[in-house]
Amino acid sequence: MKTQIAVSVLGFTAVCAVIAVGFLATTRIIEQKADQLSRNIDNLPANLVRSVTGAVGMR
Fold first, then answer.
1. Which positions ≥6 away from 22 have C-beta within 8 Å?
2. Mean pLDDT of successive 10-residue segments in the chain (59 residues)?
3. CA–CA separation, 42 vs 35, rounded Å?
């Protein structure tokens, strides 16, 4: 009985560890995407000016 409890506790701990690692990896990816997005938003005015002047032909 004790070994069965120990095995199930180990299994539960392993499942929790896998979930935690997956969660951390997902969070890191989301943070990278958010950084990328905020950088794009910061560059938006310059990009707009560049594309408008390029369209008008005032390079």
1. none
2. 86 94 92 87 81 74
3. 10
